[in-house]
């Protein structure tokens, strides 16, 4: 296991030592060596031990030793090199045993709880791992000295919202409303100090690690240790099937990630069989953040509000979007309730088309996102934007090389005052209805018939051919949307 000079200083009880390197040295130390004059090269992977009086030529430091690593120099008072060497041996052994216990914990059935059990002595304070709904997946043991909120989570299996949802101050004085993805020390009301971090587990929901300061004084070294623990949690997610608590939220996340989409697996579980609580046909709602003011914590808070709405549903946080599955008949009532909690300038809502197969949740989520990206309203329905979306995608794919029916170019170049180009366009748009086409062009039906004969003779288009007619209509539509305007074939 690799350590940093900060971790070593913390282990030795030197919490107030000021280290000059910024940013702090990463964990890279794997061993130690006695400092001698014969050394020609110093390795960043070693911490060097020497007599302080010999290095600084100061007799007052005769009973002290010094630790060197890179630009970092730590003077350890009242200890000789033999004593500090033995303590460093113990330090490396202590953290190596922790690493081994984490490796062993990865084989346990309840791996997250095993991680907590293996790490309690390392951090010396209450620990918990929670999911995106603030549901506690694992927590440290409760005793008489545990803080009130830790006793509460043991009973409710929920981390109190004021632990992670309210404003805190980082150790460097910045006011924040949300933890980051790197372990950091957060200070609450100038007294409660804790390490917090959000862990984005691949193909799953976000987990959060919370460690309260108690028996040990937190420094950046403890944040580095928390980062090691986070890496083990991530390894668990990538090296084996990650299903904490076997929750329906994780299963729903798998569906949205396409785990069962277009696969030949014999996956036939239906929503009623796994007690989702609502029947087919289903529909998805996605609530997408439009403003940076809506961070992860606000999304979690909004999700908690939505979960209180008395409508049968399944709601999770997925890729920073709130995704809700429910029965189609409950859609309008659900949208009415959601609007009570959100501001349109911060959010946009996408609604999918109905579906009845669970594996279709993947495509329905993408329908929601397409509706949000294409629509301009606070609530955008996939079925209403589907045609324009497909048309836009076709136009993008057809940008170069360009496919356009030759009749359009011929009529555009040769047609001057006869109106043949517009005649063909209106004829196709009105599905070859002569009466409606003539009315739109404000001409007699006989004139329309004559123009259509001219168009067929001039362009050789076969208007009775369904495929060719649709090709010409698509070309007109793409031109209307600006994808083929003034382009040459």
Number of strands: 16
Give the CA-based shape: elongated
Q: Average pLDDT across residues?
A: 81
Assembly category: single chain
Spatial sequence of strands, sheet with the most strands: 6-5-11-10-9-7-8
- Please give the alpha-carbon distance between the first and last residues: 65 Å
CATH topology of the largest domain: Alpha-Beta Plaits
> For this structure, what is the CATH class of the largest domain?
Alpha Beta
* Biggest beta-sheet profile: 7 strands, antiparallel
Strand content: 15-25%
Which segments are poorly predicted (pLDDT under 50) over 5 or more consecutive residues? 241-246, 264-275
Radius of gyration, in Å, reads 33 Å
């Amino acid at each position: 296991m690799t350590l940093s000079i900060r971790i070593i200083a913390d282990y030795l009880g030197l919490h107030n030592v000021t280290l000059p390197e910024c940013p702090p040295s990463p964990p890279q130390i794997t061993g130690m060596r006695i400092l001698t004059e014969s050394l020609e090269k110093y390795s960043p992977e070693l911490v060097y031990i020497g007599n302080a009086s010999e290095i600084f030529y100061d007799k007052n430091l005769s009973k002290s030793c010094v630790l060197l690593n890179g630009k970092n120099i730590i003077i350890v008072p009242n200890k000789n090199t033999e004593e500090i060497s033995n303590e460093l041996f113990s330090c490396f052994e202590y953290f190596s045993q922790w690493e081994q216990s984490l490796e062993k914990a990865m084989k346990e059935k309840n791996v997250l709880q095993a991680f907590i059990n293996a790490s309690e002595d390392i951090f010396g304070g209450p620990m918990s791992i929670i999911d995106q709904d603030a549901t506690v997946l694992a927590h440290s043991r409760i005793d008489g000295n545990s803080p009130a909120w830790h006793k509460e989570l043991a009973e409710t299996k929920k981390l109190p919202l004021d632990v992670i949802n309210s404003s805190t101050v980082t150790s460097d004085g910045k006011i924040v409303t949300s933890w980051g993805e790197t372990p950091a020390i957060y200070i609450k009301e100038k007294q409660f100090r804790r390490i917090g971090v959000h862990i984005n587990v691949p193909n799953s929901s976000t987990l959060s690690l919370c460690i309260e300061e108690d028996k040990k004084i937190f420094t950046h070294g403890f944040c580095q240790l928390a980062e090691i623990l986070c890496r083990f949690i991530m390894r668990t997610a990538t090296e084996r099937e990650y299903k904490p608590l076997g929750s329906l939220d994780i299963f729903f996340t798998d569906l949205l990630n396409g785990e069962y989409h277009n696969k030949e697996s014999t996956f036939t579980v239906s929503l009623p069989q796994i007690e989702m609580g609502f029947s087919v046909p289903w529909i998805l709602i996605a609530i997408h953040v439009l403003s940076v003011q809506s961070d992860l914590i606000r999304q979690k808070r909004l999700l908690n509000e939505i979960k209180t709405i008395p409508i049968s549903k399944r709601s999770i946080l997925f890729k920073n979007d709130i995704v809700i599955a429910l029965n189609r008949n409950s859609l309008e009532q659900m949208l009415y309730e959601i609007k009570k909690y959100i501001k349109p300038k911060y959010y946009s809502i996408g609604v999918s088309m109905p579906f009845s197969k669970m594996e279709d949740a993947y495509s329905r989520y993408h329908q929601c996102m397409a509706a949000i990206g294409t629509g301009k309203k606070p609530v955008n329905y996939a079925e209403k934007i589907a045609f324009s979306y497909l048309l836009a995608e076709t136009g993008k794919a057809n940008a170069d090389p360009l496919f356009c029916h030759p009749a359009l170019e011929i009529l555009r170049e040769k047609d001057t005052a006869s109106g043949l180009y517009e005649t063909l366009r209106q004829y196709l748009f009105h599905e070859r209805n002569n009466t409606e086409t003539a009315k739109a062009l404000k001409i007699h039906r006989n004139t329309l018939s004559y123009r259509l004969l001219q168009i067929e003779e001039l362009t050789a288009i076969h208007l009775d051919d369904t495929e060719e007619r649709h090709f010409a209509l698509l070309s007109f539509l793409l031109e209307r949307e600006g994808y083929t305007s003034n382009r040459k074939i």
